[in-house]
Write a structure and sequence with these properties.
Low-confidence stretches: 1-21, 152-161
Radius of gyration: 17 Å
Largest sheet: 5 strands, parallel
CATH superfamily: Cobalamin-binding domain
Mean pLDDT: 85
Structural class: alpha/beta
CATH class: Alpha Beta
Strand order of the largest sheet: 2-1-3-4-5
Strand content: 15-25%
Number of strands: 5
CATH architecture: 3-Layer(aba) Sandwich
CATH topology: Rossmann fold
Length: 161
């Protein structure tokens, strides 16, 4: 009888883990283009992971096509791009177009890095939910993502804030 209870407890524990996992935000983080500085995105990845989010770090030197493919393959709720090279007004529009073409317009997009504030409105017009500049506290990013959960059945919160 004891083993039967243990098996029931194991099943319950697995069910609870899978339920909790299904509610975890999945975010793909990527460095797009020729930008090779990844310390900041790794700090963000760790902070999001420590906050209970599932983080998929795509790595350095990604193409827009490979990033969108990763978002689709990983069934991500969010895509976080880190761009320090100044190529954001070339790379982000391409990624947003590819997301739409892939039927992934429900995936939220955030951008961080060295982005002139004068470009923030242009990025938001493209559909970027939020731009985070250098020195943004990690809890601000975590709070934003938690306050704007995404799912493939609901695109609420897109482009706001």
């Amino acid at each position: 009888m004891k083993q039967h209870n243990c098996q029931n407890n194991d099943r319950l524990a697995v069910k609870m883990r899978s339920t909790n996992m299904s509610k975890r935000l999945r975010i793909v983080l990527a460095k797009v283009g020729l930008d090779g500085h990844d310390r900041g995105i790794k700090v963000v990845a760790r902070a999001l992971r420590d906050a209970g989010m599932e983080v998929i770090y795509a790595g350095l030197w990604q193409t827009p096509e490979s990033v969108v493919r990763t978002v689709a393959d990983e069934d991500a709720d969010w895509l976080g791009l880190s761009i320090l090279s100044g190529a954001h007004m070339t790379l982000v529009p391409r990624i947003m177009t590819l997301l739409r073409e892939a039927g992934l317009e429900d995936v939220g997009v955030i951008v961080g890095g060295i982005i002139p504030e004068s470009d923030y409105p242009k990025l938001k017009e493209l559909g970027v939910a939020r731009v985070f500049g250098p020195g943004t506290p990690m809890d601000e990013i975590v709070r934003f993502l938690r306050q704007h959960p995404r799912s493939h059945s609901s695109a609420e919160g897109a482009g706001k804030e």
